[in-house]
Q: What sequence folds into this?
């Protein structure tokens, strides 16, 4: 199936979809298309991909923390007969940061589960739920998959820094020739921050 | 037990302290944060000829020269904050006394501690690749298991001992491209008259 | 759990899982028992009248190197030899799997020694900053020998077992 045929079928379904070619998905020269729909049409898009677009192979479902835009949920499906890739994308409500850039500690994006359309999405949704905090309504067996039960927080969100990198003293923080000693500023230059730690974290 | 190891095997890292200028690049680039470097600044001893030249440059500069050794020593004791002020003063004194800067009162980094924690090390080799002065080398030794995990942090002395196990760089494979440092001198074809420019050695 | 060469490794769902919170299954390890026929894994005749029973918790990539090392050893159990059990932890210990590793260690009979194989089980290794990795298996169980490497060579495991032998009761 060519990109134009996919575009026609998607637009004719009336899902308010935005279609664009995907970069880097599949082999060079393969047909790969990203389809973005509002969260309300998520199940309809999945059903369209499976039934009308011939995407019978469910590859993965995961999330992308897009900071201001919220947490996007993506699913990669593939058609074995038509040999085309589809990256299905939606941004459920509730994942946007609060006004003023405050961390969205209370935000819980919700989306209906894809397991009714693709059974293989079960474990993927469990992982996306624990890593990004997305709630999938109707999931047959929700619960943490990879994280221990007593884990708090959603690690793959951008506002979840790695605690070890902030707590541990970075050996590279010293300037060459600076003798060992507690926190000496070097000629007024701002202290280098190790990679992976946001500026000014932890607060206070 | 003897094992046939392939060339460029990554067993342990050796440090050639003489090449190290304490630029801290290895400690900064290490993804595991397992290289611990401590150092201080100290003035390099002036060359004997430069001392005479500096002294003869002018009696007007004599006062500055006398002031400078004391300043440099105090700077080493006081640490970095002192160094900042001392260098400013040194620059002013040099300008006032018209002293040549070369040959006297240069400051270098002196290594106090260089340790690699091999319980954390993942043997990626980034430290060896990034070192601009070739102070770190791969050695194929692999049997250094310990019963105490603190013994797996190797200090300067032990890292120097690993240097004696570093093999000479292996010959390039036949048909390999010319090494970049050789290309810089001879161009892409390598040295003239060498049939296989990929082979190392003459 | 990595399957050592030879004997079976059966998962028993839920019968013993309640003892260890978070455990999803209890694991029956091919541990030495009286009457076990010769040839089952993995016995090393250490040559000093001592045989090592090696139980390998192969959690990640280091398991491949341990497998390579163990495949080069000759299994065998001479009569009248002293037996020493070595619990080898090879691979990253995640927080989710930590209770199972502890449970497996507790099932190994005495006299037992623990050999930590590779950077991940020594100290967390490349995942020292991860949110779900136990920074070294010595946070769970006492470790006797640490073998550094990422992964260490199979020969490094044999060198580590030599160190264990030095500590084993003569």
A:
């Amino acid at each position: 199936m060519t990109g134009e045929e996919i575009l026609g079928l998607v637009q004719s379904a009336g899902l308010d979809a935005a279609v664009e070619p995907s970069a880097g998905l599949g082999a060079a020269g393969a047909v790969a298309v990203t389809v973005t729909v509002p969260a309300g049409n998520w199940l309809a898009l999945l059903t369209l991909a499976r039934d009308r677009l011939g995407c019978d192979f469910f590859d993965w479902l995961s999330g992308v923390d897009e900071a201001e835009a919220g947490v996007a949920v993506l699913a990669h499906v593939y058609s074995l007969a038509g040999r085309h890739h589809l990256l299905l994308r939606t941004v459920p409500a509730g994942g946007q940061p609060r006004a003023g850039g405050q961390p969205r500690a209370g935000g819980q994006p919700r989306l209906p589960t894809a397991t009714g359309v693709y059974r293989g999405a079960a474990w993927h949704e469990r992982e996306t739920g624990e890593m990004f905090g997305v709630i999938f309504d109707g999931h047959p067996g929700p619960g943490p998959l990879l994280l221990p039960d007593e884990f708090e927080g959603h690690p793959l969100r951008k506002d979840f820094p790695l605690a070890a990198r902030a707590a541990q003293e970075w050996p590279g923080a010293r300037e060459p020739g600076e003798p060992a000693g507690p926190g000496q500023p070097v000629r007024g230059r701002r202290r280098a921050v190790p990679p992976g730690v946001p500026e000014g974290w932890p607060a206070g | 037990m003897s094992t046939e190891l392939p060339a460029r095997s990554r067993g342990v890292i050796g440090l050639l302290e003489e090449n190290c200028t304490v630029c801290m690049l290895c400690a900064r680039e290490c993804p595991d944060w397992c290289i611990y470097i401590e150092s201080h600044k100290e003035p390099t001893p002036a060359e004997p000829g430069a001392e005479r030249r500096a002294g003869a440059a002018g009696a007007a500069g004599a006062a500055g020269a006398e002031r400078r050794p004391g300043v440099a020593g105090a700077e080493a004791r006081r640490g970095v904050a002192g160094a900042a002020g001392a260098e400013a003063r040194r620059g002013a004194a040099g300008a006032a006394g018209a002293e040549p800067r070369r040959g006297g009162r240069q400051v270098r980094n002196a290594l106090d501690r260089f340790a690699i924690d091999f319980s954390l090390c993942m043997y990626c080799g980034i430290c060896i690749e990034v070192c601009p002065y070739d102070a770190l080398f791969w050695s194929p030794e692999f049997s250094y298991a310990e019963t105490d995990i603190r013994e797996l942090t190797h200090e300067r002395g032990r890292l120097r001992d690993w240097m004696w196990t570093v093999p000479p760089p292996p010959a390039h494979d036949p048909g390999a491209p010319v090494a970049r440092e050789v290309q810089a001198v001879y161009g892409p074809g390598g040295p003239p008259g060498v049939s296989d420019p990929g082979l190392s050695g003459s | 759990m990595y399957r050592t060469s030879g004997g079976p490794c059966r998962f028993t769902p839920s019968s013993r899982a309640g003892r260890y919170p978070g455990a999803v299954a209890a694991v029956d390890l091919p541990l030495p028992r009286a009457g076990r026929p010769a040839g089952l894994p993995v016995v090393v005749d250490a040559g000093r009248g001592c045989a090592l029973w090696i139980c390998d918790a192969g959690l990640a990539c280091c398991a491949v190197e341990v497998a390579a090392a163990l495949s080069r050893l000759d299994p065998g159990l001479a009569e009248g030899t002293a037996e020493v059990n070595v619990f080898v932890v090879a691979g990253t210990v995640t927080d989710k799997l930590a209770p199972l590793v502890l449970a497996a260690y507790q099932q190994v009979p005495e006299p037992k020694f623990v050999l930590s194989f590779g950077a991940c089980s020594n100290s967390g290794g490349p995942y020292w900053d991860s949110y779900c990795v136990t920074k070294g298996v010595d946070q769970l169980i006492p470790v006797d020998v640490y073998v550094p490497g990422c992964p260490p060579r199979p020969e490094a495991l044999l060198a580590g077992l030599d160190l264990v032998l030095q500590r084993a009761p003569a």
Summary: Strands of chain A lie at 18-21, 31-37, 57-65, 71-78, 84-90, 110-112, 135-137. The longest strand of chain A covers residues 57-65. The mean pLDDT of chain A is 83.
